[in-house]
Amino acid sequence: MTESAGARSADKGGKHAMVVGAGILISRLFGLLRQTAFAHFLGAGSASDAYSAAFKIPNAMRNLLGEGTLSAAFVPVYSRLLATNDERGARALSNAVLGLLLLAVSILTLIGIAAAPLLTSVLTPGFTGETAALTTRLTRALFPMTGLMVISGWCLGVQNSHRRFFWSYASAALWSLAQIVLLVIGGPRAADAATLATWLAWATLAGAVLQVAAQLPEVLRLVGPIRPTLDRSADGAVSVLRNVVPVVTALGVVQISSFVDLQIASFLPEGAATNIGYANVLALLPVSLFGVSVAAASLPEFSRDSVAPVYDALRERLRGGWQRILFYIIPSTVVFMVFGDYCVGLLYRSGRFGASEQHVVYVTLAAYAVGLVSFSSVKLLGSAHYALKDYRTPLRASIASILVSAVVAGAIALPFRSSGLAVAGIALGSALGSYVNLAVQLRGLRRVLGSLYTPTMWQGTRRIVIAAVVAGLVGSGARLLHHQFVPSLHHRLAAFPVLLSFGATYLLVAWSLGSREAAKWLRLAPRVGSGVGQGASDGASA
Q1: Could you tell me which residue, 492 or 514, shows the higher pLDDT?
Q2: Number of domains present in the structure of the chain
Q3: Residue 112 near residue 422, CB atoms below 8 Å
């Protein structure tokens, strides 16, 4: 692959990633508003714990059969059919996959509704009395969301394969909007928190309907009339079904990890299940914006690049995407560790969410931040494995990860279960486990693609770290001014100058060190004369 071709490939991937990132940003902003309203009206108590637990159970089924599975098993096969201009075969495959998915989720939904009491007792053994009963009722109300979200995942897979990225991700904002409207209108009117949680469950289901309906017009334009079938003879259907087994197994392992976390949290003080959810939403924001966006934009291109026996294009695209992720994830790690209290206060501090909840969520967020680099990187590396038709390595990586996560989380959280901060042990376990996942996936790719992280990329990473550290020092100075001169200023107001000083400093220092990514944000010419090679400037084109 020539240098110019590599640059064009990286720029194309970067543009697609930006489109995905824009869609995810919109959906995540509404998601944060949803969480802000949730914190204001429900805080961190038994009702919020019940809703958080009930939501996790059907959401696991959605992750198993929805977006994750379709991205890994369906998109590579569907994209290859499109690459050969076999639109008729691609249409037949998409309808067959949809039909098979609908059959599977219909059965699972009926089982889930019937088995809700059993699921509650197994997954939240620490819940008792009304909290357990409410969790069961909410699980039954939310379980039909599984089928709707699987359809949404199918729509997303079709759109991404056709390089339509924005609306497939931005449509999730409608799902959050339905819940926001309910909380704002129903919050002051609900007799108690349990009633509001029940209303919210039905609004969550309604939001899933809106999300699917918003995507269907674009999908219809791409594939024509939707006619679900059970035709396993469709070209590529056998490959998709064969791929589904290891993908679902790998994702199932990840869901087991989240269920282990939930089980541990159910034995901790009231509000633990909710607080870990608050921290998780914040921690996943940069992962979604930069890790998932780059991985999602890269998967169809990886699949096209992997057709050839020589993987130069795939390798270069992987390197460029990885460095682009690190440009954003490393400073996000510093922000959450050093200024996470401001982030939590900015989004959640109001109503039922007070200073004690803010402190617990901040410490938990800082623990999650330890694993941000690995959380984001495994998304991209996993896409490369799937494009290469390697489904076993991500599975082995997930199994190793869950074992480490469960041991660390249990060893830290359970001995200190009487402390509200014990929930941070669960987050730290997830973070450390994710690095095991990263190590296993890296080793697998290295066998096929050779060395991935070049000396040039290491130079770019060092410059990212330097810029983030300098920005952290400047932000700490702004924090000191806040505490010295206006200590009574609400964190929601104080967060803006602190975080803005960090962001501006990071971009300026990164640009001065040769970052082309920072130059784009600042609308300045790259400092190509800084002694840094173009590829090392920020890694975006490495």
Answers
A1: 514
A2: 2
A3: no
